[in-house]
Specification:
Butyryl-Coa Dehydrogenase, subunit A, domain 1; Butyryl-CoA Dehydrogenase, subunit A, domain 2; 3 domains; five-stranded antiparallel sheet; globular; binds flavin-adenine dinucleotide
Length: 399
Amino acid sequence: MGRLCQTDGLTEDQRDILEAVRSFVDKEILPVATELEHADEYPTEIVEGLKELGVFGLMIPEEYGGLGESLLTYALVVEEIARGWMSVSGIINTHFIVAYMLQQHGTDEQKQRYLPRMATGEVRGAFSMSEPECGSDVAAIKTKAVRGDDGGYTITGQKMWLTNGGSANLVAVLVKTDEGADSVYRNMTTFLVEKEPGFGETAPGVTIPGKIEKMGYKGVDTTEMVFEGHAIGAEQILGGEPGKGFYQMMDGVEVGRVNVAARGCGVANRAFELGVEYSQQRETFGKKIAEHQAVLFRLAEMATKVEAAHQMMVKAARVKDKGERNDLEAGMAKYLASEYCAQVVEDSFRIHGGYGFSKEYEIERLYREAPMLLIGEGTADIQRMIIGRRLLEDYKLKG
Ligand SMILES: Cc1cc2nc3c(=O)[nH]c(=O)nc-3n(C[C@H](O)[C@H](O)[C@H](O)COP(=O)(O)OP(=O)(O)OC[C@H]3O[C@@H](n4cnc5c(N)ncnc54)[C@H](O)[C@@H]3O)c2cc1C
């Protein structure tokens, strides 16, 4: 282990958890990641191993069978896992967001019903805001839930880009409901939709058509979800009350952003490791390429970016753990870590020369993975919008 991405002030428990995960990544993920990714194969054995390590219940409170760890522990675990293979961190991320939303906003009954089985990985979560015609503009969603005379609802519409849409059996879905509110944001509701894992009709009126073919981030399934008159009871509304869905989802996405930042740090750290290793092996003009100043400077820049992104990600997690609003820090961390990750991966690719273009080299996989981080949990433009608006609140002119 090198000296990048170290975190001060961790407890012994945190250090033990990270040590166990790092060892799992080195032994069980890194040796098979590229082969599984090229085959677009779901990493079943890895997921089973992570269940045993307790990763699915890392942040779920102990009273529900989880480890009750902080967002910081979770983010550092994600960073380690993404260093091994980003898709595996994607498998955990939506699960973690749904568990977090249940913890924060669920009724007691909903928490009792789902959290203990989420902690073991028996119930696996996905979350769904995006639709074919909108992603950034969440308020433009069209999928609707209409309330019937019996108090139940019927959902109709189409969702898009569900990470783990096939493998999950519980999906937190944002839909429009008519609450008669004057704000579009208060006419949205999150439903907890139960379904079978797999593809086709996975619950009455709920179809998962198949996997979307992607340039990278393979292994983990990303799907559409089609609702054709899906009947669902009011007890499946997150928190029991309609009209709060937008705010619940934004809360979930805020912790999700720390998670994406952590993934960016992990992938960038791995890209640096690959670059620094290769540059000390490859020779040109009679010396190792690391001895050419242009390559050495490239390595120096890469490492500086990895370290800066890590520190900012840690800060964003710690602010949330203190119970404070962290939209500014999470936005900054996500923005910086994803941009730096893409740059560091590109630099490592260049260091590899022609071999970077070969599927035999791991950097080829990282090169196709990094762009997803620029988009997921809000694009760079959306992060800049959030950061900018928050700054104007803080630095508002007086008088
Ligand atoms: C692999 C993958 C997995 C995903 N998983 C999930 C998931 O699990 N659940 C889920 O709900 N969604 C998921 N998404 C969807 C993702 O959140 C959206 O793709 C993302 O929010 C962007 O939305 P969009 O694709 O509709 O792009 P658009 O919103 O159409 O944006 C297109 C371009 O316009 C820019 N833009 C848009 N609005 C503005 C603005 N106001 N100011 C400046 N620029 C703007 C954007 O930055 C972008 O460059 C996933 C996406 C991918 C690729």
